[in-house]
């Protein structure tokens, strides 16, 4: 028996015999079709992202976000308006079967079905076709979502009272002594619920800043009322307290 007879040596082609530098493949044979991820493709993505980021930063500096007056928890008539990308949900909550007793449908069930359909879309349509006409389920879900969001957003914009929204959110620069007896009486009465904690208007009452009324005129309105929102005998205090309140309101001026 010769030495080494019957022995076999097996080599694995996946294990390189010598180490080679990590050099990207030459894709010159496929121009415009593919390229190395690092650094070619990733560098382009970073450059595009940097352009958009700088653009947004410049936009935020040049066009500042519109601010409204300080939030007043006593102003029950203030109607908040969401940003434009949530207007379709805001409009959805205006419909009968998505608000009130059915608010759970508008806030949980319908949005849940919509996002659930988007998550299940890859499992509902497993075809390999790329043409929309060959993928009716995915195309139908996409068109249904796009049409719904577009219509609800448009409906919200055209039906919203933009003038009233501008008025209720307007910043009014007014200062007064919160220790003034007239303001203390104002807070003790039911005036806050209608005219707000800062006297700039609320649920159903107008602003009391710069009315131009004399104390006697204000006292008369408090006793006799003023349509449409001011009922008669709304003030429940004494005549002396009413006089102090009227004098306090008559001196309020907008800066």
TrEMBL record:
<protein>
    <recommendedName>
        <fullName>Menaquinol:cytochrome c reductase cytochrome c subunit</fullName>
    </recommendedName>
</protein>
<keyword id="KW-0479">Metal-binding</keyword>
<dbReference type="InterPro" id="IPR036909">
    <property type="entry name" value="Cyt_c-like_dom_sf"/>
</dbReference>
<dbReference type="InterPro" id="IPR036150">
    <property type="entry name" value="Cyt_b/b6_C_sf"/>
</dbReference>
<keyword id="KW-1133">Transmembrane helix</keyword>
<dbReference type="InterPro" id="IPR051811">
    <property type="entry name" value="Cytochrome_c550/c551-like"/>
</dbReference>
<dbReference type="InterPro" id="IPR027387">
    <property type="entry name" value="Cytb/b6-like_sf"/>
</dbReference>
<keyword id="KW-0249">Electron transport</keyword>
<keyword id="KW-0349">Heme</keyword>
<comment type="similarity">
    <text>Belongs to the cytochrome b family.</text>
</comment>
<comment type="function">
    <text>Component of the menaquinol:cytochrome c reductase complex.</text>
</comment>
<keyword id="KW-0472">Membrane</keyword>
<dbReference type="GO" id="GO:0016491">
    <property type="term" value="F:oxidoreductase activity"/>
</dbReference>
<feature type="transmembrane region" description="Helical">
    <location>
        <begin position="136"/>
        <end position="154"/>
    </location>
</feature>
<dbReference type="GO" id="GO:0016020">
    <property type="term" value="C:membrane"/>
</dbReference>
<keyword id="KW-0812">Transmembrane</keyword>
<feature type="binding site" description="covalent">
    <location>
        <position position="194"/>
    </location>
    <ligand>
        <name>heme c</name>
    </ligand>
</feature>
<comment type="subunit">
    <text>The main subunits of the menaquinol:cytochrome c complex are a Rieske-type iron-sulfur protein (QcrA), a cytochrome b (QcrB) and a cytochrome c (QcrC).</text>
</comment>
<feature type="transmembrane region" description="Helical">
    <location>
        <begin position="46"/>
        <end position="63"/>
    </location>
</feature>
<feature type="domain" description="Cytochrome b/b6 C-terminal region profile">
    <location>
        <begin position="27"/>
        <end position="154"/>
    </location>
</feature>
<dbReference type="Pfam" id="PF13442">
    <property type="entry name" value="Cytochrome_CBB3"/>
</dbReference>
<feature type="transmembrane region" description="Helical">
    <location>
        <begin position="102"/>
        <end position="124"/>
    </location>
</feature>
<feature type="binding site" description="covalent">
    <location>
        <position position="191"/>
    </location>
    <ligand>
        <name>heme c</name>
    </ligand>
</feature>
<dbReference type="GO" id="GO:0020037">
    <property type="term" value="F:heme binding"/>
</dbReference>
<feature type="binding site" description="axial binding residue">
    <location>
        <position position="195"/>
    </location>
    <ligand>
        <name>heme c</name>
    </ligand>
</feature>
<keyword id="KW-0408">Iron</keyword>
<dbReference type="Pfam" id="PF00032">
    <property type="entry name" value="Cytochrom_B_C"/>
</dbReference>
<dbReference type="InterPro" id="IPR012049">
    <property type="entry name" value="MenaQ_cyt_c_Rdtase_cyt_b/c-su"/>
</dbReference>
<keyword id="KW-0813">Transport</keyword>
<dbReference type="InterPro" id="IPR009056">
    <property type="entry name" value="Cyt_c-like_dom"/>
</dbReference>
<dbReference type="GO" id="GO:0005506">
    <property type="term" value="F:iron ion binding"/>
</dbReference>
<dbReference type="GO" id="GO:0009055">
    <property type="term" value="F:electron transfer activity"/>
</dbReference>
<dbReference type="InterPro" id="IPR005798">
    <property type="entry name" value="Cyt_b/b6_C"/>
</dbReference>
<feature type="domain" description="Cytochrome c">
    <location>
        <begin position="177"/>
        <end position="253"/>
    </location>
</feature>
